[in-house]
Amino acid sequence: YLVGSPDDEIHYFAIVNSLMIVVFLTGAVATIMIRTLKKDIAGYNEMQTIEEAQEETGWKLVHGDVFRPPQSYPMLLCVLVGSGAQIGSAFFATLLASMLRMLNPIKKGQALTAMVLLYVFCGVVGGYVSARLYKFCDAKAWKRNTIATALAFPAVIVSMFMVLNIFLRIVGAATAVSFLTVFLIFLLWGCVATPLVFVGSYFGYRADKVEVPTKTNQIARFIPEVPYYASPPISHFIAGMLPFGSVCIELFFIMSALWLHQLYYIMGFLFAVVSILAATCAQVSCVMCYLQLCAEDHRWWWKSFFNCASAGLYLFLYSIWFLTSKLELVGILPVMVYLTYMSMISLAFALFCGTIGYLSCFWFTRRIYGAVKVD
Question: For the residues of 115-129, what is the DSSP string, one character each?
Fold first, then answer.
């Protein structure tokens, strides 16, 4: 499973154990949610009298505000979710190509090139998702939204890389990248990636607006004090633990392959772990959204994204622990290289998890409010 490590069977059983724990957790959470929601919906639908309807409590109270588009930075949210969808689809496509023997993960250069190309081609997905959400928000600046979706995440990554590359060129490091290579990547990004995002955005805006089961009130409802476990930053730290915990054992092997020159080549396990990660993000996000709506807080848009995106912070903290305990880097520059690359990976991981959380909450709220009778 992991070439270069003596305890192959221990690694194998550790991963199976991790998968079983996460599957059990997902099943338990789903069972609790379904039973609780069935009871809630049955109770709400049995309310016949006006007095009973006036005394209703819980998440049905906010039915007139739950689908109110986010008031703060709706474009930024759509851009982040679109970027996360592009990253996730590119990663799953890379894993599928590796499992079908179209890619050889042992050849790291070939795998990295394939990931970059697949990320560029998945711009269609990012543009489509961002456009659908932006249209739901009733916003008009669709060209600005599309350009931001195409440029935002790559611009951050390229900026971080260019700053690091300047330091590498100053000290004459062999890992410094030539200007020609950076220029060719920029051409790939500008001439291929951006038009593909516009293609996805075109189909996203042409599609019908996402339908929701309830009408939005003209005046926003007053939000009472929310319990500590359902309000940030506590909710972010609680919700981010489980997605990170579902991949932390596998993460050790991946980090060893990246930084300790070991070989990681069984992509079937990685595909299963990423699928479990996505399922965990979806479950955790729905539970946190339910708790928030029960507290009569209808502002779930940004919170649903950050609840799962906080897993990226845990990944970065884990990388610092890995640096101090497993790596023996000498000098400031190797540490800078390590932290820069792990910052990029943590950012991509956060966007992927946040997107899963946001889209799961959107689906969840449409399902539960579509199941109750609203006058």
Answer: HHHHHHHTHHHHHHH
